[in-house]
Amino acid sequence: MSTQQYLIDASTRHQVFLQRYGGSESKKALAYLDRLRRNINARISQEPTIFRLNRLKALLDDINAMTAALMKDMSLAISRGAQELAISEAAFSAKLYNKASTTDFILPPDAALISGVEAAPMAAPLGKKAITIDEALSQFSRNKGAQIAQTISDSIVLGDTTPEISKKVHDIISTVQRNQVDALVRTITNHSSSVARQMVYDDNAELLEGYQWVSTLDGRTTLICGGRDGKVFQKGGPMPPAHWNCRSTTIPKVKDAFNIGSKLKGTRASKGATGGKQVSGRLTYGGWLKKQPVEFVDEALGVERSRLFRSGKISIDKFTDPTGRVYTLEQLDSMNVFALQES
Fold first, then answer.
1. What is the H or E stretch that residue 66 is in?
2. Which strands form 208-214's sheet, in the order they lie side by side?
3. Pairing of strands 275-279, 232-233
4. For residues 66 and 60, what is the distance between their CA atoms, to the nearest angstrom?
5. How do the domains of the chain map onto residue ranges?
6. 110-119 and 133-157 are packed helices; what angle lies between their axes, rounded to 10 degrees?
7. H/E element, 325
8. What 3-state class would DSSP assign to 249?
């Protein structure tokens, strides 16, 4: 068993635990939202059932103040958690890589890891500027506070009673904002872990030939992550998270001189049409997906992309451009025409 296969096995298993950790951190953040919802509705209930418009400014001032305070507490808790996770992930990574090589990996200082995770921009929706954790949290707090205030203002203009206003606030915080907080925290979790690994790679560059992208083998994996699976990148290349809620990870490509190879054991976890099982560590996402039933591939890629992929005309990494933007079906058809002409 090669060093790379062993590292893929250990890293994918660790990624499962990391996702569970992200879920627990999300629950902590959601507790702040629940407290905010209760506080806002308690404040609204102090008003008469038939709300008077001249009370709007006083109500919004109070709600904006409690929203800002609780969002600040939530943001600080998430930020501290990200810093602690980066330190923990770097330590885990160094121990894992030490086991897979003939030399010891250097561990970045805690202060450097904290600075690194604070400064590094994380994944952003295509077309938008990548921002740091603090910027993302500030943006979230500002936007969600404005959303709550706007919901209350609109309800009052419509003549809603205070119980009706409370229900609308309850609904928006308990559904939309909860889902958004969950996605934000999980993305920050993977970002912090990824930054820590990148810093370990940078501090041990002389031992490495680059780093390898490792995606999750299941039907939820996006085209961008599926296309990058197994690819080796150099410093400055893409790092997870590639998008919000990204579950991909990376492993170092250890130079042969430091590779202990056959002494290691390992496979790779997957979850296909028949459920979870271990597969060869050499199998990439594209190779694994080809072994799945048509219905599974259709659901993962969409019917038309599935047809192109299964026909062998387009490999999984060709569904996205170098920046990770997914090509439209029309663009793919155009590229096929040029490919046929060249052949």
1. helix 56-99
2. 232-233, 208-214, 249-254
3. unpaired
4. 10
5. 3-203, 293-343
6. 40
7. none
8. strand
Half-sphere exposure of residue 66: CA atoms within 13 angstroms, side-chain side: 20
* Residue 261 tokens, joined: 């190879």
Please state, in angstroms and rounded to a whole number, the distance separating the CA atoms of residues 2 and 266. Answer: 9
Output the tens digit of pLDDT for each of the chain's 343 residues.
577 888 888 888 888 888 889 999 999 999 999 999 999 999 998 888 887 777 888 889 999 999 999 999 999 999 999 999 999 999 999 988 988 888 889 999 999 999 999 999 987 655 578 899 999 999 999 999 999 999 999 998 888 888 999 999 999 999 989 999 999 999 999 999 999 999 999 999 999 999 999 998 888 889 999 999 999 999 999 999 998 889 999 999 999 888 776 555 556 566 777 777 777 666 677 777 777 888 888 887 888 888 877 877 778 777 776 666 676 666 655 655 444 333 3
Residue length, the chain? 343
Tokens of 102: 């003939």
